[in-house]
Design a protein that fits this description.
181 residues, mainly alpha, rod-shaped
């Protein structure tokens, strides 16, 4: 029992530390997710601005009112911002997955801690069972000793050696300890 108690205490401390560590990891993952979401919003805003530029420059380039190079740069920029949006979406999805995994780790650590918290009750139950088994052993020993004592009372011993000539008790009869016969 003492070893189990020490192990239980150690397990409970370790589980509590794991919960705190995983909660800190969850907070960090949540911050990374928030940053990835902000980066995604920024990439989308830049893409929309560049798309507006392309839409504005297209008719002007068709009428040769702006240099073709300006329009081409706007189209290339829009392709780059569209790629940045896709990269930001992938980064946000990965950060969201990291948050989900961190939550799972916190849940698992909390479950381990709850399990460790039940160990003292389990030890108490085991201790009670051991004490009950000891009491049952003592009871059985007392019953055995009483049976041995009762067995000794079944033997009738004559007060003196010799042959009994006249008997008042015959085999098969019941006698009690206080009878004078």
């Amino acid at each position: 029992m003492p070893l189990t108690s020490v192990n239980t205490s150690s397990e409970l401390s370790s589980a509590a530390a794991d919960v705190e560590n995983f909660k800190a990891g969850l907070v960090a993952a949540q911050h990374q997710f928030d940053a990835a979401q902000a980066t995604l919003r920024q990439a989308v805003a830049n893409d929309l601005r560049v798309q507006d530029d392309v839409n504005r420059y297209k008719p002007l380039a068709a009428k040769d009112e702006i240099p073709q190079q300006v329009y081409t740069q706007a189209v290339d920029s829009q392709a780059a911002t569209a790629a940045a949006v896709q990269a930001a979406k992938a980064s946000a999805a990965a950060a969201e997955q990291a948050v989900t995994q961190a939550r799972s780790k916190v849940d698992q650590a909390e479950a381990r801690m709850l399990s460790a918290q039940t160990r003292p009750q389990q030890i108490s139950v085991q201790r009670s069972r051991a004490e009950a088994a000891l009491a049952e052993t003592q009871r059985a020993s007392a019953v055995f000793e009483q049976a041995q004592l009762n067995l000794q009372y079944t033997t009738i011993v004559a007060p003196i050696d010799g042959i009994a000539g006249q008997r008042s008790v015959h085999p098969g009869q019941n006698v009690s300890p206080d009878s004078s016969s």
